[in-house]
Amino acid sequence: AQSVTQLGSHVSVSEGALVLLRCNYSSSVPPYLFWYVQYPNQGLQLLLKYTTGATLVKGINGFEAEFKKSETSFHLTKPSAHMSDAAEYFCAVSTPSGGSYIPTFGRGTSLIVHP
Amino acid sequence: EPEVTQTPSHQVTQMGQEVILRCVPISNHLYFYWYRQILGQKVEFLVSFYNNEISEKSEIFDDQFSVERPDGSNFTLKIRSTKLEDSAMYFCASSDQVNTEAFFGQGTRLTVV
């Protein structure tokens, strides 16, 4: 079974500050990992993904995440927060299960950006 | 850019009524999913669909739920007899292979009164 833990239901940062959203996963096989963003009253938009290869992946809007197998982590970072980054962020893990890959989501982290 | 389309965006229904949530996946995608998100809670997997049949389903997806691909484009979720606790945002998603990301629709907010 696979699972995702996102530490912190809310993260608050000042505009221009570093953003760090934590994600740890549990999987018995090599996982695929994703970060999705949900803006108010909108659907889920893919920020970035890790499947194989380079462990540091870059996504849209200046976000990046690093897959650390030894720590079973896939934390999301952005060097400088912008007001428009305020949203709900979901980490998801996907592993083979019965012949298919089904993303399992974490509980989400709400990013609050202060002026 | 291709996108997953869901209708309606908001549905209000009386408890006990049947509802059908509609989705048009991206045209060349083969794998389809329904998720739900109860307000303030995590996004939960309901069911996946491939080759005209359910491939996986969660414990949430009980007998009151069903999915169908009635034609070459639509993918529907039916809730036979809605309960108050079915109130949630329902997301449809599709992917072209099992090992690539799922593309999500904007969601249908279902309110059961």
- Based on DSSP secondary structure assignment, what is the total number of beta strands of chain A? 14
Q: Residue-averaged pLDDT of chain B, rounded?
A: 92
The biggest sheet of chain B amounts to:
7 strands, mixed
Distance between the termini of chain A: 41 Å
Taking pLDDT < 50 over at least 5 consecutive residues as the criterion, the unreliable ranges of chain A are none
Q: Which of globular, elongated, flat, extended, rod-shaped describes the shape of chain A?
A: globular
Largest interface: A-B, 25 and 26 residues
Number of beta strands of chain B: 11
Mean pLDDT of chain A: 91
**Proportion of strand residues of chain B:** over 45%
Q: Radius of gyration of chain A in whole Å, from Cα?
A: 14 Å
Give the N-to-C terminal Cα separation of chain B: 36 Å
Estimate the global geometry of chain B from the Cα principal axes: globular
Can you tell me the residue ranges of chain B where pLDDT is under 50 for at least 5 consecutive residues?
none
Strand content of chain A: over 45%
Helix content of chain A: under 10%
SSE series of chain A: EEEEEEEEEEEEEE
Oligomer, anyone? heterodimer
Task: Describe the model.
The complex is a heterodimer of chains A (115) and B (113). With 115 residues, chain A is an all-beta fold. In chain A, a hairpin with a 5-residue loop joins strand 5 and strand 6. In chain A, the strands form 4 sheets. In chain A, strands 2, 5, 6, 10, 13 and 14 form a 6-stranded mixed β-sheet that branches. Chain A is globular and about 45 Å long. Chain A has strands at residues 3-5, 10-14, 19-21, 24-26, 32-38, 44-50, 56-58, 64-68, 73-78, 87-94, 96-97, 100-101, 104-105, 109-114. Chain B has 113 residues and is mainly beta. Chain B has no helices and 11 strands. Chain B has strands spanning 5-7, 10-13, 19-24, 31-37, 43-50, 53-57, 65-68, 75-79, 88-95, 103-104, 108-112. In chain B, strands 2, 4, 5, 6, 9, 10 and 11 form a 7-stranded mixed β-sheet that branches. In chain B, strands 1-3-8-7 form a 4-stranded antiparallel β-sheet, with no helix packed on it. Chains A and B meet through strand 5, strand 6, strand 11, strand 12 and strand 13 of A and strand 4, strand 5 and strand 10 of B.
